[in-house]
Design brief:
Length: 140
């Protein structure tokens, strides 16, 4: 009596070596796809705690007035300023000390003394506003 199954097929309920190898390779690939990014990820560096008694005080020179925001074109009349708040690092402590993570403000600015454009800047606490009396001023 002739078996109606295809030639070379394993009897029902039994796995072939080739089938087991395919399953093993599939599981290995799945493991690599899931596990490698987790293993490769570097842990976040531990925060640095500084002893306040070792930080020299009053050594950073203030370099004149802070930058001044520049108004952006708007259709509503008056002056409109686009300002955003974000977290970033800045050199607040004296030179040689680590940068400090701060929240500050950013936007288009110019030098307060010369009027030279500075482009988009962000710093902490942030640029100043120089506005004209009796002019509508909007800050977005």
């Amino acid at each position: 009596m002739r078996d109606h199954r295809s030639i070379g097929a394993a009897p029902r309920g039994r796995a072939t070596n080739a089938g087991m190898i395919e399953v093993a390779i599939g599981l290995l690939i799945l493991l690599l796809v899931v596990a490698v990014p987790v293993i490769a990820a570097k842990p976040a560096p531990a925060p640095v705690t500084l002893n306040p008694k070792t930080i020299p005080m009053w050594v950073n020179q203030l370099n004149g007035p802070p930058p001044v925001y520049v108004p952006v074109p708007s259709s509503g009349g008056g002056d409109t300023y686009e300002v955003n708040a974000s977290e970033f690092t800045e050199q607040i402590l004296p030179p040689g000390m680590p940068q400090t993570t701060v929240w500050g403000y950013g936007g288009l600015a110019k030098d307060a003394v010369s009027g030279a454009p500075l482009g988009f800047i962000r710093n902490s606490p942030g640029p100043s506003f120089m506005v004209t009396r009796n002019t509508t001023t909007r800050v977005n």
